[in-house]
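Tutorial handout. Part one gives the primary structure; part two gives the three-dimensional structure as tokens.
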Amino acid sequence: MSKQIIVGFSLSIILLWGCENDGPQMKIHVNSMPLTESTVVDSAIVERMGLFFSMHYFQDELILVNLLKNGGIPALNFYHAGDLSYHTEFLHYGRGPNEVIDVNPYYFDRQEDSFILNTNDYFLSDFRYDDGVVTKGQDTFIANTTINNLFITSSGHYICTPERRGEGKEFQIGEVGHSGDIRYFSDYPKTRIRYGNDPSDLATVCQATCVGSNTADRYMVLYTFLPLIRLFDLNGEEKSSIGIADYKQHAQSVDDIYNEDCTYFFDQPVVAGNHVFVLFLADDAPTGCQLLKFTWDGQLESRYSLPGGIRAYTVSDDQRYCYVLTMDSDDNDLLLKYRLR
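Part two.
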């Protein structure tokens, strides 16, 4: 770690004690962290037309997930991470063999020579990748519930956002393969944004994207409309709450959020190596956004500049490159390769 980063890190975190969850609460000053200018090293027009909602890095390949079901384009489109050239495609939409009705674009779990997707709402599907050839393995039933912010623990449990908000909790834990025996955890965070009696209003104000780590025993919650990150262990116990001291939400009520008159904070967290990367949108600069790099303890380690208009992105396992999907001036899908270090 360079001296510059050490200085920035020492300025970026203040520890406050006696917070509501009886643990240490960190206040992060994002702007105290030096901003690294990322450099474009390659670009390419995306050859296949589709509605790409996410991108994942796997074995030096970029997997673009297409959600356009009636265009004849498969769900999974592979591009070489090295030169961004088109490689192969797999998994058509439909009801036939080796077809799927739906793909969750945000769930992606990597094994040594295979990866796992959440398909057809309720299933985990295993895909083996060998020398450019993709084959679909077996499906595993998760639970009969709508699944958002899904994470599968090494103990065979799933964590996700509840389908029904009546329990008044943010998340639920259940056993993979069993729809019953669900346990709920985490009260919604307190907020100054006004909302009505409809539970969906509170869920909207506290909308979040989440990632997890079995190795770190953490489930990280990054809020879209709140300058807040919360960390839980995989049993649902809150370990810390991290506020962003530099920025505040200017929305006064949930109606401001519905009308998009609000500040957006965190979007599309990505796990790479032993870190979490996330887009930080609160800076009002119209030309771009920031990419923040966190440890699983919530420590901010790096801050990078990226362009605006990002539709999807991912980070290489060695954290040297960030791959961005955006649009060029002619409205073509454009892949950009950024060097981070």
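Part three, for discussion. The chain is about 5% helix and 45% strand. Helices lie at 3-12, 199-205, 254-258.
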